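Ticket #4471: structure export looks truncated?
Reporter: QA, pipeline team
Priority: medium

Steps to reproduce: submit the single chain below to the structure queue and open the exported record.
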Amino acid sequence: MSGGGVSGETPSWPSLYDPGLELLHITNRDPVQPGGSYLTHASDIFLFTLYWTLIFYTPIFLFCGLYAFFNLTFPPTRRPHTLPRLGREASDDAAYPLTSLRPYSPRDTTAPLLLRPPKPKPNQGRSRTTFALLVLLAFLSLSLLGALISSAIVGFILAGVYKLAKFNLSTWIPFVWAMLSVTVGLLSVWPTVIDII
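Actual output as written to the record:
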């Protein structure tokens, strides 16, 4: 593992090293530690952040997508609700008596509009599995898009801040920020996904 901050060369991914080099006994030591790996180019910082974000982000969306896929493919069975009858005065039959409906005749202008044949539904031939696959693909594509946007924002902001302050960016920084951005993303998505599923 070469020191990317000293020579300007890009370390291989993931290039994680002992974090104690940066955190323990740092008084009167150089900012670039022997045995540490550092990133200098903005594109490298973006790529490291993208890789970590994909590692943390995609499995969570894959799990949610598979859950939605199986829930749509094999829906839970609906059991009829049987309520105990409390007596004649509490039943719906007494409050709303049933009336017979007349069959629809094209010559009868007084026939209700509800008896006309319903219009065919769009995509009526589409199977439940096809729809579930579309939902799974939507989850996977949104996870890739979300990881790409999140890592672009975080990676280039990190590159700008560290270059402006003339700090050396350790390879641990994209790892930590990818975990933070995925956690924040999950906190904002959780109620919406639960309502949809």
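Status: closed, not a bug. The export was complete when the record was re-opened. Leaving a note from the reviewer for reference: Residues 128-165 form the longest helix (38 residues).
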